Amino acid sequence: MGRLSRPCRSGRQKSGYRSKSGKSLARFFPEIVEALLGTREDRFVLDGELILPVGETLSFDALQQRLHPAASRIERLSRETPAQLMLFDCLHLGNEAIADEPLKERRAALELFHAANGNATLLLSPASQRIEDARCWLERSGGALDGIIAKPLDLPYRSGERAMLKQKNVRSADCVIGGFRRMTDGKGAASLLLGLYDEGGMLHYVGFSSSFKASERTALLARLEQHLGGPGFTGKAPGGPSRWNKGEETPWEPLRPDLVVEVAYDQVTGGRFRHGTRLLRWRPDKAPRQCTCDQLHAELRPAELAQLMR
User: Fold this and answer.
1) pTM reported for the whole predicted model
2) Average pLDDT score over residue span 151-173
3) How many CB atoms lie within 10 A of CB 266?
4) What is the Cα 223 distance to its own chain's centre?
5) Average pLDDT, whole number, for the chain?
6) Across residues 124-133, what is the average pLDDT?
7) In which element (H, E) is residue 225 found?
8) φ and ψ at 19, to 5 degrees?
């Protein structure tokens, strides 16, 4: 929920941490900086992930809200909804650079660091060499975790590489196609816009699917165009300009709520799919009104996370 890569401190006066893209996140999470400055170590480089409990869930949306230019808002949110840092690797500790050491040794160093400095803000990710434990974690997560990670114990730290195996929790949902976006040349469908009905009969936008082969997009567009002219989404609709689309609104076209598809998804946040979904099949046998929001699995709960760490 918001990857944090290699937070570091050199001396007692400097502290910083960066995102995967290399941008500093220090000003957005002052409570994390304070926790790192409060440790007993003078020099360290860690790898971890930010999580943010809000009520009964860990909220990715709340993490996104922290990336805000107003310092006063960041300061207020850091007090009202403090973030936590889940540690999962150690690259440098004291005067020793250990990024090139095997994972087994880096994990031992991380556990020593956490034993001396861990608190309610700095958490240690669970780890085990037993496949039974990994299966148990996946089952007990309630389908809300992104998944579990497997790494070879003899590998050094691989910066910028995916030197791991990720077993995701993948679930499916039957969704109504409430609209679509065209390719920039207008000759094919770029993405399907997915919706689910709430108890009041409103169709809410919950995500998209764009995992199609180039050869399929023209035929898909022809199929969608037969259902043009409908109301589209009657509840929450696809958003306009954002920092993800460089401030430019991507036009979409509403459809009659006739078409139903089953899609695979990995995680839900803020009442919608956190990532793009994968089209599994068309569901002409399913009535659109049967596609309801109760199909969505909730985000990970802090209580569930605490159980996994035992």
Assistant:
1) 0.65
2) 84
3) 19
4) 32
5) 84
6) 92
7) helix 217-225
8) -80, 175
Contact of 140 with 304, CB cutoff 8 Å? yes
Spell out the residues 6+ positions from residue 28 whose beta carbon is closer than 8 angstroms to its own.
Answer: 66, 67, 68, 74
Q: Cα–Cα distance between 276 and 263 in angstroms, integer?
A: 10
User: What's at 267, amino acid-wise?
Assistant: Q
SS3 state at 74: helix
Which token pair is 93?
Answer: 């500790």
What are 139's two structure tokens?
């089952």
Query: For tokens 């009659």, what's the residue?
Result: 256
Q: Domains of the chain (ranges plus CATH)?
A: 3-169 (3.30.470.30), 171-295 (2.40.50.140)
pLDDT in tens, 190-228: 999 999 999 999 999 999 999 898 899 999 999 999 999
Measured distance CA(200)–CA(235) in Å, rounded: 10
Say whether pLDDT at 5 is over 50: no
